[in-house]
Amino acid sequence: MTIAPLLDAVRAAGAPPTPATPGPKTRLNIVLFSGGTGTHSITAALARHPQVALTILINAYDDGHSTGRLRKFIPGMLGPSDVRKNIGRLMKTGDDCHRALAEFSDHRLPVGIDFAPAMALVRAIARHDRLNMEPKVWALFERLTVKQAAWAGRFCHLFEEYTWKRLKEGVRFDFTDCALGNLLFAGCYLENAKDFNRTVQAFGECYEIGATLLNVTHGENLFLVAVKEDGTVLPSEADIVSAANTRSKIAEILLIGEDVYRAEIEANPALTPGRLKEISRQQSAPELNPEARDRIRSADIIVYGPGTQHSSLFPSYLTRGVSEAILDNRGADKVFIANIRRDHDIQQDDANDLARKFLGALSRGGHAPAEWKDVVTHFFFQKLEGDSGGAYIPFNESTFPFPMDTVHLRDWEFQEGKHAGGYVFQQLEQIVQSRMAIALEPHHDLVSIVVPVLNEERTVEAVLQELTALDFQNFGLSKEILLVDGGSTDRTLELARSVRGVKILQLNGVSGRGAALRRGLEQARGDLILFYPADGEYRATDLYNVAGSILGHRYPVVFGTRAIKTSLEDRLRQVYGGGVAYTLSKYGGMLLSMLTLLLYNRYLSDTLTGVKGFDAKALRDLDLKGTGPDLDLELVAKLSRANRYILEIPVDFKPRTRAEGKKTTIADGFRAVWALLRYRF
Predict the structure, then answer these.
(1) Which of 194, 229, 245 finishes a domain?
(2) pTM of this structure
(3) b/e map of 318-343 (b: 16 or more CB within 10 Å)?
């Protein structure tokens, strides 16, 4: 047989298809080692991005307060608190029923509550009994869906049955300060045949979380013990995180099985380090959850998160199989994110100590040796600026044992020790895109509100309080507030510092509103930027409409115009009275609008408004130069030349007079006109 018929058949069928060229990856697999609250903002940022497949790995060794009492009351169960906390921030926030469920789960029974009224509440939830449910709890319970109320009632019923059974055995549970969510978890644990890992999965499904939450181990019921450098034994997780034990560094952490822990450690307050080490040598390290192993091996990014390091993070790395799974994943970026500020367990540690202890835990004391470069590729450390009080964790470049090109040293903080989650994600995105093709859609996570100020002691405190009260959670946004002072000589700075949650910046060598705004932009971490003055003339809640217009309608730039809701003439007369100043202001504003139309083919009714919003990417490429109100027109000019559409929406405005602090002058108007001309020709 000749080959010709075969060739004819191939030609008739057509040429074989050319293998498709793989396109860019469209989903990012991220594994985050987490604890209870330390990774809150980072978790929220990662979970909100629609193209991130997030897996959170936790241990559940917490044993303090009501969690410890629950673990003792239900032998074999690990602590539910970190499970509840992580689930709470992974829930949907857009629906009222989910917000109610989060509040319901976090509701705590009163400190010192007696057994009878506590059991009456559990029974009322189990039976959906409004009459016997305290009003605050019922107000939340009735907002739940039928499905949510059903499983909450079922879990309470199971816990109630178990509690009566234990009472007959002579064991009474102390409900004081116990979160309802922990009781619900306990009921779910009983329903799932006391399988902890299966309970974590089932509990997450009940709350409809948008990520995968896994216990890092098989579910071995272990207890955490530590030894300090001075020989002090910390016999529980609660002692490790206690503020009372801060004078000496923690040298070693150990995991002890429940039976041995109850008999040898809990019952022996005079335990010596030597005896503790004898006990620990008889213990086996916990085994890695198989699903966690698979997630680690397939991750694009592995993040070792911040938090209470000696209880929430280091014990997870001691799990047998964690280091091996990380080593198996040769392609992932592996990022260690250090705490920003000191926690109770790291009062004496610096960033180098955290890195060293992290690698020591991963090696399990030398039982799983690994080259550092195979388990960590990047370190995120906080850049210190004027930390006179010693609250921040210092980083010493001269003694850091690893290459400095692995270190990202910047200001990660946006509020009281919390990481700017969206900013962290931006850096992770840049790292991963440097080695692999991935197309991630733009996604907003953090809004930065930049507030320029100069001698505004009459209004600054009230304005900042209004801004701190704004809640952008319905937009899926966290917020930071940056106040930039241009050299105030009154009590402005003193009053601003009295408002919590505001970052204070000061200008050096320059002055003017434009310079203040530019300084704020340099420090802002948000992917959405809002400008808002401290003069009390605007209404803070109008920022919701500005942010919503950017997010919902995809407008990159939004100006809040004063020319729609208020009468121009009435407003100017109120400010200037009459005469030359009134005339120049009235027709000067019109001139700026007309020049903008003539020079840039854009008509704006209010070019000098103090309320503006931007997608950060649209703003940061402009190379702004202005130092005063000329910056407003520089923005208009450069945005117009970049073909950026500017949406105007009405905002409320209550003008003040010169006697009340009005600062805009005729000279500012001339500089604004010059800016329009300068950037056009």
Answers:
(1) 194
(2) 0.81
(3) bbbbbbebbbebeebbbbbbbbbbbb
